[in-house]
Amino acid sequence: MHPHVRTALSLQSVDLQIGELQREIATLPKQIAEIEKLLASHVAKLELDKAASEANKRDRKNLEAEIQQQNQKISKLRDQMGGSKITNDQYRAFQHEIEFCEKAIRKAEDRILDLMGEFEPLEKAVKAAEGALAAEKKVVDGEKSKARARSNEDKAQVARFTAGRKELAAALPKELLNKYERMRVKLKDGLVVVDAAGGLCAGCRLTLRPQYFEEVKKGEEVHQCENCHRILYYEEAQSFEDLVDQSAAEK
Ligand SMILES: [Zn+2]
């Protein structure tokens, strides 16, 4: 392989890794926002349950006050009924009013019972949600700091790669570097330096002319695909002995 092509290939490898890291860095704030949104929805649900629980208590208190009022009214009416100068008609009217008060009391008592029935599960739900939420907040905080640490690591890595990239770029002839950069932009970070294995451009899948493929194989110059203009490289297939040596070294 021509040394400039090898350098361009290394440059591309660094660029791909930088791109990968930058994509990850970009997704982390979104991840955090999503975790926070879920937590916020759980907090909102708890607030609703709490408000319902408070309303339940308030309603019962009001009903109890009403019962007390009706009872006071009844005892006042009874006092009036006990008076000596009362006619039969008046007596009946008082009695009628007492019945009316008693009916209101029963109605209020029934409603209190209903409310108590509703209050129990509501209170249980609030208690459970409060516990779950405390645990969830802890998890969310952990996730957030993990995401932030990851993001910082990625950024440090990008800085290291960027420094390495500078060195590789400086090692390339200006013309080749410009060609690489232009194509990288055009291909939207796709591959610029591609394998020509089997006499096929890995970029556009065009079959190279046999003679041209031979030249690419020799690697005496920098070659570009005649169709898509990507820079071509050819990696000499390793011999069986080399592969055996390699796997032995890896062990
Ligand atoms: Zn091509």
Tell me, what's the shape?
rod-shaped
Specify the CATH class of the largest domain: Mainly Alpha
What is the CATH architecture annotation of the largest domain? Orthogonal Bundle
Poorly predicted spans: none
SSE topology string = HHHEHEEH
Helix content: over 70%
- Please count the helical segments: 5
Q: What small molecules does this complex bind?
A: zinc ion
Measured on Cα atoms, how large is the radius of gyration? 41 Å
How are the strands of the biggest sheet laid out side by side? 1-3-2
Which topology of the largest domain does CATH recognise? Helix Hairpins
Proportion of strand residues: under 5%
Largest sheet: 3 strands, mixed
Number of domains: 2
End-to-end Cα distance, whole Å, is: 28 Å
Textual characterization of the structure:
With about 250 residues, the chain is mostly helical. The chain folds into two domains: about 15-170, Helix Hairpins (Orthogonal Bundle), CATH 1.10.287.1490; about 190-250, no CATH class. Helix content is about 80%, strand content about 5%. It contains five helices and three strands, in the order H-H-H-E-H-E-E-H. It has a three-stranded mixed β-sheet with strand order 1-3-2, sandwiched between helices. Strand 2 and strand 3 (about 230-235) form a beta hairpin. Helix 1 (about 5-80) runs antiparallel to helix 2. The radius of gyration is 41 Å and the shape is rod-shaped. It starts with a helix and ends with a helix. The model has no long low-confidence stretch (mean pLDDT about 90). Zinc ion binds near residues 204 and 227.
